[in-house]
Amino acid sequence: MPPGSVSAPMGARSTMARSCSRPMKSRLPTKIASSPSGVTATWVGAGVAAISWAVQRLAATSKPHRAIATTASAAGTRRRSMEPPGFRITIPCSHGGGIGARLSTLGASPKGIGDLSVAVPNVWRQRHLSAKVGHPLYIGAPFPASVAAMTPPPSKAQLTALLALSKRLELAETYADVLAAARDTVREVVGYQTTWVYLFTPPSQYTLITIQGSAANAIATEVPILHIEGDPFLEEVVSGKGIVLVEDARTDPRTNKEIVAALGNRTIVNVPIRLFDRNLGTLGTGSFGDEGVMVPSREQLDFLDAVASHIAITLDRVRLLQERSQREARLALLFQAVEQSPVAVAVAGADGSVEYLNPPLATLLGHTAPAEDESPLDWESGRSAPEALKGVRRALDQGVEWRGELHLTKGRGGFVWGAVTLSPVRREGGTLSHWLWLIEDITERKSFEERLLRQSQFDTLTDLPNRVLAIDRLDQALNLAHRHKGGVAVAILDLDRFKTINDTLGHGRGDELLVQVAQCLREAVWEGDTVARLGGDEFLLILSGVYEATAAERVAAKVLRALGRPFLIEGREVFVTASLGITLAPADGLDPHTLLRNADAAMYGAKEQGGNTIRFFQPEMNRRAKERLDMEGLLRHAQERGEIALHYQPLVDAQGIPVGAEALMRWTSPDLGAVQPERFIPLAEETGLILPLGTWALEQACRDIAVWQTQGLPPFRVSVNVSWRQFAAGNLPETVQRVLNAAAIDPDLLELEITETLLMTDAPLVRSVLGRLKAMGVRAALDDFGTGYSSLSYLKRFPFDQLKIDQAFIRDLHESESQALVGAIIAMGRALGLTVVGEGVETEAQRDWLRQRGCTLMQGFLFATPMPATDLAAWWRGRIGPT
């Protein structure tokens, strides 16, 4: 209880509680509070007698004072008419106790009272109290007693209309129902034909609700009022401070004359709609057009006020009904969306137990309904990444979101990969309510990525590790040997005269021989050692824990003996021999590339001795290394001597019509003859000679494009391969721009090809350079897709225009696995908006297969071999005719 408050005796309270529903002559206040600003007395269940007692009691004080009384009498009637449950009396006093005495007889006005006001539910109780007290009482701000006039009680017709309105409001379910009832009541009693409501919609907006149609089929139209501020009339209307009466809207200074002219307003009446101390809005009515000016009487204004009081609670109830209906509709829509969503959804409680599964999740995992205390973590198969499981548990402990991939059980013994999003669901107060699990089936994508990853690390023919994985394995073996002070033997094996065998038996039988040789090598080495295929008929053996030549020689001899047995190829015995070169770590080197180079030199030493033998690396026998140095010296001057040329291999569409060409570098040396690109290009990259050679290739290709245009050939795009060193130099975009300007050709006619290994060197740099080239109008192609660390992320992270399938896939299209991979790559590229090119097409069967799968561009010997620029012009004219 606040300071200065005094409670009535318990007995008095009990008496009040027992008699609050029947009349009484006098009653003690429930609470009397005194403060420097005045005295406040509060009653519950008070009537006129209690007000009389308050006036008598407070007359003795010299402070300003007020009496507050609430009544509980006739509660049932108020509930039916939806009136507030009480009223408040405020009696401002003059000073010096001039209020008079003995006011128990309320027939005369209290002496010394300047103003007297009352806040009551409606005008009917106001009049009742005014008549009893003998002093006019008004709703809202006090009225001077000298000017306040007594108003007559409501007529029987008004009471009947209000009773009928109350009955209609009991059945109202929409704003249209409420407004139709109010409109009909106003028409009947006041005569206004049009009624509307400005409904307050928190926090600070209003909605204009109008009504059309009869009571049976009334339709409400809701229009948001966006511009109240700055409109004095609307600001006064929606303030809720009192009735706003405009006798003639055409002349009243408060109204907007343009709107008045457009709508035809004449008289406008707006009555506040209040519920307790809440401003719900305003009830508006009035006359229009030919109805003329219809100024209401005071009795009609009181009646309109009573109508507003009657519809207040109903409007609030309709609002709540609408909000509940909207919530239910949203919930129904959400439930329908979740039920029909292609994404699997589970809802778990705060304790983690599953409470709901949508049909896609039930289908995905083979569950009909969640088991008791079942958690989504129970679906994990045990094959998910440990970090993923830690992340899930951490998110559940901390109540935060988590995204990742989980391997899940499916039904009876099946498994699926799921991309999982785990999100907490919280109540309004922030406490955790549920967990939302979204699971997308990515099994097919994971399978494809695993196949691509395996393809990037394993040889498709023999299923042995390829060069990339072999180097990684060798690096791991060297690190392990260094920690344990052990050794590693590295052997390169090359089949003798395999080219002759391959040409004699055919490529298909040659491939089968390589498969059997690979299996033979696996069986010949120790468990834990690595056998890899470096390419062609060249294999790599990594023997861990070997640091003596004798141990390595025993394994190598075992390998040669195993290869000495006949291989059965399609019922025919085939015999092969091999040359092995061996190098030892740490004696001969400490890094993979040095050891491979040493083993390669030793292998060539074995071949020089006639093959079918073993040679260990020795510094004095490194003939290949010397040849390589000689080649490097010749290559440094090859361009200036005119020994380097560009040849072009045409690019055709599915109908064989030429659409572009790829520029290929060729070297013809007076000392070495025609040097294959796979020999001098890696050497140029390693020594840095690729930088001037690459720049020259760009310049020459652009010059040839310009010449072809002057010769009347149609514009076509030319692709040029670029090296990782050209990207690392940092000035590739500037070089390309200079070359394009010098040749005066359209940037769209130039396309740069890069390999996947380039993306692994410095991805941010490559992405930046490709972005700048793309802005210049130069296109980018990903070459030899599938030979490196193939990843779908490359295609999304880098601005590629074209995807070139490596010719190894095309060559092996007769194999079902290659067909599946190539088909998937084509579909993936098309889905990402990339042009897909099939490289190395040599047969019509390969062409037809690619064409049926939607591969739009092809390149290979079936269409044309690489040729000089002049020959390409003639070939092009021969294919497309004169231009």
Helix content: 40-55%
Within CATH, the superfamily of the largest domain carries the name EAL domain
Q: Determine and state the CATH class of the largest domain.
A: Alpha Beta
SS strand fraction: 15-25%
| CATH topology term of the largest domain | TIM Barrel
> What is the total tally of β strands?
35
Tell me which CATH architecture of the largest domain applies here. Answer: Alpha-Beta Barrel
Shape assignment = elongated
Rg is: 48 Å
Q: What structural class should be given to the helix and strand makeup?
A: alpha+beta
The largest pleated sheet is described as: 8 strands, mixed, barrel
How many discrete domains? 5
Task: Give the neighbour order of strands across the main sheet.
Answer: 26-27-29-30-31-32-33-34
Descriptors:
alpha+beta; 883 residues; Beta-Lactamase; 5 domains; disordered N terminus; single chain; 29 helices
Task: Please outline what is shown here.
This protein has 29 helices and 35 strands.
Q: Describe it for me?
A:
With 883 residues, the protein is α+β, with helices and mostly antiparallel strands. It has five domains: 5-144, no CATH class; 156-323, Beta-Lactamase; 341-441, PAS domain (Beta-Lactamase); 451-621, Alpha-Beta Plaits; 635-880, TIM Barrel (Alpha-Beta Barrel), CATH 3.20.20. Helices cover 42% and strands 24% of the residues. The protein contains 29 helices and 35 strands. It has an eight-stranded mixed barrel with strand order 26-27-29-30-31-32-33-34, surrounded by four helices. It has a six-stranded antiparallel sheet with strand order 10-9-8-13-12-11, with helices on both faces. It has a five-stranded antiparallel sheet with strand order 15-14-18-17-16. Helix 5 (156-171) runs antiparallel to helix 6 and helix 15 (507-524) crosses helix 16 (549-563). The longest helix has 43 residues, at 298-340. The termini are far apart. Mean pLDDT is 78; it is low at 1-151.
